[in-house]
Amino acid sequence: MSEREMVAAAIQMSSTPDKNENFEAAEGLIREAAKRGAQFVALPEMWSCHGLDSAYRENAESVPGPTTDFLGSLAKELGIYLLGGSIIEGSENSERLSNTSTFFTPDGELSAIYRKIHLFDVKAPDREYLESADIAAGDEVVTAKAGSSILGLSVCYDVRFPELYRVLALRGAEILAVPAAFTLQTGKDHWEILLRARAVENQCFVVAPAQWGQKADGRWTYGRSMLIDPWGTILATCPDRDGFALASLDLEYLDRFREEFPSLANRRPGSYAGLSSEE
Fold first, then answer.
1. 204 is catalytic
2. pLDDT by residue (tens digit) across 237-273?
């Protein structure tokens, strides 16, 4: 395997409001993925506590904090890059919380913190969602070094906003992380097509770990964690169960593809003056 190749695993969980139960499940899946050769392992959104809105504030914690300490030590022990999906950052007394994703290097360092920018305030087919009632939107675009590649961080509903991913690509991202808890109703029609579009338009690999199954409050999440290449091909996907999608991300192929099919290089940003500024 070359230096520009990385085996990645997108973990799929059906997390509950019980943090201890989720930690045990997550650790088992991370260890199994590493045993199968994964060098980069990604957890889904809200992996440590999910399914009851009332439980989020009770389980909120600081970043860095106990959960990031747990993830950092596991990354160091296993010698892997580890994306901590997202957790609720804050405290029971915090006026506003954050939906926060973290990223760890193989030495256990917490190397990146991303707070979800786009909040899920929608009337979905099953119910109305108002994430902003408790969660404060982040405002920082975040990338991180992952071996010889650059990782772009995002969370779930972010995937519907292509401008975020274009900024990530322009900042050098080659792998886009999209930990999620997509609803069943939106996921069955939109999850795959949105992920593949973000991969194709930005010429990036996509690593998308997800929640699946019925939650404690009765709602359903879609699952289908997957890995996608820059052509939009699904490299691996996870069926409806706890587990992970596993595939090799060939970044030398990405280098060749961007050279031979230079859609990013062919952009004409001067013609987009009416849009918001790009960095």
1. no
2. 999 999 999 999 999 999 999 999 999 999 998 898 7
